[in-house]
Amino acid sequence: MDVLIRTIERLTGSVGILASFAIVPLTLATCYEVFARYAMNAPTVWAYEIGYILTGSHFLLAMAYALAKGAHIRIDIFSGKFSLRTRAIIDLLAYAVVLPLMIWLSTSLFSHLATGYLRHERSGQSAMNLPVWPFRVVFFVAFTLLALQLFVEVARDWQAAGKLRPRAEWAKECSGRKADVQYLRKTNYDDVPMKPQRVYQCMNN
């Protein structure tokens, strides 16, 4: 299982990093379009369509990578008060609901991709009128990777839900460490000048 998890994360990480480079041609295409439109009065027929394809690809292909890094938006107003085990259980339940939906969506996107390819569908978004199937490949790959990463998160949270200690037990152990003299930092030295760490102590004596 650990080998499978590492393989999936390596795959999602590689695709996510590759997707980040889409910002480079997107920036170049946008800058050229602005220059051509306002400086040369000769707008392009391709900049708009290339722009939205690159923007969509950039975000879609990074979804699984963002999930792996915990970069998706969370509302921690309640979950921040829960123990690590409780949060793992909540995440596990949420991912277990979303995972089947992502699998269904991925299979549907593959059918959508095949239909566009067989019918030679085109976008109709600009005079360039690109074929739609390459962009649908991006959709299919992005949601398939997201489904795989959700599987990884389910596996990890399943392990965490059973292995993480309750927060109260962990906090009690930390308090015990603070009371242990070997973990205390000495601040009083009789034979050396005053150190910065003693300033607060001396101000409050």
Give the structure's gist in a few sentences:
The protein has nine helices and no strands. By secondary structure, the protein is an all-alpha fold. Helix 1 crosses helix 7 (133-163) and helix 6 runs antiparallel to helix 7 (133-163).
Task: Please specify the SSE layout and strand pairing.
Elements: H1 2-20, H2 23-38, H3 47-60, H4 63-68, H5 76-79, H6 84-118, H7 133-163, H8 167-179, H9 199-203
In words, what does this structure look like?
The chain is mainly alpha-helical and 205 residues long. Helix content is 70%, strand content 0%. The chain is built from nine helices and no strands. Helix 1 crosses helix 7 and helix 2 (23-38) runs antiparallel to helix 3 (47-60). The longest helix is centred in the middle third of the chain and has 35 residues, at 84-118. It is elongated and about 75 Å long. The relative contact order is 0.12.
